[in-house]
Design a protein that fits this description.
Elements (H helix, E strand, L loop, with lengths): L3 E4 L2 E4 L3 H7 L5 H5 L7 H13 L2 H5 L10 H8 L3 H7 L4 H9 L5 H8 L4 H8 L4 H9 L5 E2 L3 E2 L6 E4 L8 H13 L6 E4 L6 H17 L6 E3 L3 H9 L7 E4 L4 H7 L3 H14 L8 E5 L3 H4 L8 H13 L5 E6 L10 H17 L4 E5 L9 H13 L4 E5 L3 E2 L4 E2 L1 E2 H11 L5 H10 L2 E2 L2 E2 L12
Helix pairs in contact: 1-3, 5-17, 7-9, 9-17, 9-18, 10-18, 12-13, 13-15, 17-18, 18-19, 19-20
């Protein structure tokens, strides 16, 4: 590999693939914290130039984390379609970018291409793309997934209804749930983050949400976002869970810090198909976010965009129903301001879609980051234009349990109306039956909780 270039009369030499990929990143505070970011704009441009000239085979043949020591690397490597790879291995990363963005290349071609790309190659091409490139390329790809209903169709935008409560009070959760439903939210999943991670608490919330779904014949899925092992025990004890959730990362070491492994995720998938209440075939929910490997001291000097791509390489092995990145949640140490959050959201979404994943985004920020509600509303429009499968909504955009700001029920409804999109077809029919939607848009009864009075 040639890891050097001359720009403006100055020679730039990078020591290895890990360094040049890191320095080709757009500015990220996490990379700077790790001591691997480009020192100047000129060095960043030089690194991008070098990356653009690398071959697909250069990146695959020089693993950043060896497969002998990391099960995530092994999964990514073993899942590559060798026939597809053989046809593109001598492409430069610049040629790969041009192919992805070409007018002649659409959904079918990109899905085939995906099968021959390692996660590191997808990360590399992402570093050469502008924000508009990321929107345009991701919008070409339609990823359908099915649990109890199918989401991801072109022209739709689904949502996760997140009725969290600071004490897991069931009445509070159900009231918030009713409000979200009354604004047309919740076709991707009704997902609750529990305060109490005990099996009994998880069972209680699963039973309450499932009972409500069944009573009102809502075409959706429920999930409680406890640790995977807690959910598995709850399901084994008869709790009605349509999906099993787990946060994932890009290295085996980071997974160990989460208390998970590839084997455990495989067991969870098997259990959800055998004992879960989701119809399937997809019954897993994964969550990611740039910077988690750095915070776990398990990044091995690899930049956070490349690490995030490895999340998606791991995720696609298990064929999940939904995946979302929680962009902006982890804090300013990793994404410092709104510019970095917006860039990361577009990067994550594109990389997930190019991996063939049903990709969503929690468009959010914490109060100690340099961002505000206007910034995440901007990102919501960009992601909608990019064809994001789903976004997350909390009441009034303020999650009182997790203490962060997200999109509100009203915000998601406004994005749908503004962008001319609807919820998933099966869910839209239910909304129309309930009188929440009329003629493809919210009716005057939107926000009326008495809709759920018997």
């Amino acid at each position: 590999m040639n890891l050097s270039t001359t720009l403006g009369g100055e020679r730039y030499v990078f020591h290895d693939l890990k360094e040049v990929l890191a320095k080709a990143n757009e500015e990220k505070s996490g990379d700077r914290l790790a001591g691997i970011a480009a020192e100047t704009v000129q060095e960043r441009i030089a690194a991008k130039t070098v990356v653009s000239e690398l071959l697909v085979s250069d990146i695959r043949n020089n693993p950043l984390i060896p497969i002998e020591s990391d099960e995530v690397s092994l999964i990514i490597e073993n899942d590559i379609n060798e026939k597809v790879y053989s046809g593109i291995q001598n492409w430069s990363i610049a040629e790969l970018r041009e192919y992805i963005l070409s007018n002649e290349v659409g959904d079918r071609e990109l899905k085939r291409l995906s099968r021959g790309l390692t996660s590191e190659v997808i990360a590399a091409v992402t570093k050469l793309m502008s924000n508009l490139d990321l929107v345009h390329a991701a919008n070409k790809i339609e990823i359908l997934s099915t649990c109890n209903i199918t989401i991801g169709q072109k022209g739709t935008l689904s949502s996760r209804l997140q009725p969290n409560h600071p004490t897991d009070n069931i009445d509070g959760i159900i009231t918030s749930l009713k409000e979200g439903l009354s604004y047309g939210i919740g076709d991707a999943v009704i997902g609750v983050n529990p305060v109490d991670d005990s099996v009994e608490s998880v069972k209680r919330v699963l039973n309450a949400t499932k009972d409500f779904i069944d009573e009102w014949e809502i075409p959706t899925q429920n999930c409680v976002l406890a640790h995977v092992t807690t959910q598995m025990k709850a399901i084994e004890q008869g709790a009605p869970a349509d999906m099993i959730f787990q946060s994932i990362a890009g290295t085996e070491k980071a997974h160990r810090s989460f208390g998970i492994s590839a084997e455990l995720i495989a067991e969870a998938k098997d259990l959800s198909l055998k004992m879960g209440t989701g119809t399937g075939p997809q019954t897993l929910y994964f969550e990611t976010g740039q910077g988690s490997e750095l915070s776990a001291e398990a990044h091995y000097g690899v930049d956070q965009v490349t690490m995030e791509a490895r999340n998606y390489g791991f995720a696609r092995h298990y064929d999940p129903y939904i995946v979302n990145t929680v962009v902006g949640f982890i804090g300013p140490e990793y994404l410092y301001n709104s510019k970095q959050v917006i860039r990361a959201g577009l990067e994550d979404h594109f990389m997930g879609k190019l991996h063939g994943l049903p990709m969503g985004v929690d468009i959010c920020y914490t109060n100690h980051i340099k961002a505000d509600q206007n910034d995440i509303e901007d990102l919501s429009i960009l992601l909608s234009a990019a064809g994001v499968n789903f976004i997350i909504a909390a009441p009034m955009g303020d999650d009182v349990m997790l203490n962060y700001q997200s999109m509100s029920y009203h915000d998601v409804a406004t994005v749908l109306r503004t962008m001319g999109k609807t919820p998933a077809p099966e869910y839209l029919k239910w909304l129309e039956k309930m009188g929440i939607y009329e003629n493809g848009m919210l009716s005057k009864r939107a926000g009326d909780l008495t809709l759920f009075n018997r």
